[in-house]
């Protein structure tokens, strides 16, 4: 589980941070603390029914700032707050 103190420098108030963590956890369907492309694609499609697989992949790659093949909570916050 991600320590919320690790993201204290991000300009998000505590209530929003807790909501973002709940959203992250809901997207992280296997509960491993990381969002993989399939999980992220499912989230994007739930937000926009018309997204293609290529659009989902591009959005995933842009959100995966460190390029490790998964989205951390910190990367998720960066994507959500941009």
Give the strand content.
Answer: under 5%
Question: What is the straight-line distance between the termini?
Answer: 23 Å
Largest sheet: none
Residue stretches low in confidence (pLDDT < 50, at least 5 long) are none
Portion of residues within helices: 40-55%
Note the total helix count: 4
Which quaternary structure do these chains form? single chain
Structural class: mainly alpha
What keywords describe this structure?
mainly alpha; globular; 4 helices; 82 residues
How would you explain this protein's 3D organization?
There is one protein chain. The protein has 82 residues and is mostly helical. Helix content is 55%, strand content 0%. It has four helices and no strands. The longest helix is centred in the first third of the chain and has 14 residues. It is globular and about 35 Å long. The two termini are 23 Å apart.
Short structural description:
The protein is an all-alpha fold. It contains four helices and no strands.
Indicate the topology.
Elements: H1 14-27, H2 37-47, H3 53-63, H4 73-81
